[in-house]
Amino acid sequence: xxxxRIHLPEKYLPxxxxxxxxxxxxxxxxxxxxxxKEPLGPDALLPxxxxxxxxxxxxxxxxxxxxxxxxxILRLWRPTPLVRARRLEQALDTPAHxxxxxxxxxxxxxxxxxxxxAQVYYNKEAGTKRITTETGAGQWGSALSLACNLxxxxxxxxxxxxxxxxxxxxxxxxxxWGANVVASPSEDTNAGREILARDPDSPGSLGMAIxxxxxxxxxxxxxxxxxxxxxxxxxxxxxxxxxxxxKQFEMVDDYPDVIIGCAGGGSNFAGLAFPFVPDKLSxxxxxxxxxxxxxxxxxxxxxxxxxxxxxxxxxxxMMMYTLGHDFVPTAIHAGGLRYHGMAxxxxxxxxxxxxxxxxxxxxxxxxxxTLFAKTExxxxxxxxxxAIRAAIDEAERCKREGRKETIVFNLSGHGHFDxxxxxxxMAGKLEDYDYPEExxxxxxxxxxxx
Length: 450
What we know:
Structural class: alpha/beta
Number of strands: 15
Strand order of the largest sheet: 1-4-5-15-10-11-14
Shape: globular
Strand content: 15-25%
C-alpha cells in the first residue's frame, strides 16, 4: 500500500527560509511613500517594523537563516505532514495522485503561526513591548496572539466586524492567549470613528482593520505593527511549508505536476509554491495555481497598479493586483480571502506568467470541502476549501484525459471555528457572489487618480 502520511523527521526542519526574489529576473517595483509617492527608504518603515524585518523585506539573498529560538518554537508542530488523499482519489475515481500539506496541525490551527513566531521574535529582540494587527477570519490574529504570549509581548487585534460576529470562538482563542480583541471599524482610532460616522453598520474589511492597527502602532513609541500576509518578509517565513514538502516528495519518489494554494493576501500560497518556482524556471513542466473567491477576485479580475494596503491611505503604495483600497467585499465566510490586494511578489509572478489564477463562488467551494471532510475526515477552513475545489477539478481533468498527474495543495487550516458556515451551506442558505464588470471600471478610474 502507498504511504499515506509522510512525516519528515524534526532534524529536517528547514534551517533557512527561501527568498524567491533572488531568482526573479525582474524585481518587484519598489514601494512608494504614501505622501510623496517617491520610493520608500528603510528608515521610513521603522515606526512600524523592527529593522531586521525591514532588511528581510528588501533582501535579494537566496537563503536567510532561521534563528534557533524561532526553530525551537516551530518544533512544537513542524515539520507538518504531507498526506496522500487516497480516499478522495477513490471517490473521484481519478488516476491522479492528490496530496495535501496539513498546516492545520499548528496550535493556532493554520499556517499563520509560521510567520507570527518569527515576527514576534524579531520584535522582542528589538525591545518592542506591544504589537498591533488586523485579522479577517481570525487565523492570523490567533497565531499572533499565540506568538505574543510565548514571547511575553502585549497584543491588540482589530478583527473585521463581520468575522468578529461570525467566528466568536476564534475571538475567544485570541483572548485565551492574552490578546485584546476589538471589532473593526472601532471607536478606538480616528480611522475607525470616521468609517463609523459614514456607515454605522459597516461590516468592516481588512483594509479598514489595517488602517486602525497602523494608526494605533505609529501613535505609540512602545508599539510596532505586524501583518500576516502580503509583505515580502511574511511570504519568506512561510516557505518552510514548500521546503518541507519538497523533501517529503523525495521520500516517496514523487513530484507534483500541479501546485495549488488559496490566495487572499498570498502568504499560504507563497509558502507552498515559492520553493518550487526555481524548478519551474529551470524547465520543470509544473503548473502553479492561486485560487480566490469570485466575490474578491484580486488576480482574476483586479488591476495591476500601485495602490494602498489600507482604506485610510496610511500604508506605502505597492505594485500589486488590486480591486482598489476602498473595496468593501461581501460577507463571504472565507474571511481570510476578503482582501483587496495581492502580495507584490505573487502579483509579479502572475504578471510574468509563472503562475495561474482561478476564482470560485462559495457553494462549489463548500461542496468540495464537504466531500473532503467525508473522505479524508478533516473539516477544512473555508479559505483552504478554495484550493480543494481546484484540486478536485484538476483531478477530474486527469480522469477525462487519462493522465496520471500528481497534485498537491496547501490545507492552510482547519475549519473547527467555521461550523456556522457549514451549517448555512447544508441548509441551502449560502449565496454566491460575483464581481460586476462596472466595479472593475470604477476601480480603474479611482486608481488612475491616485
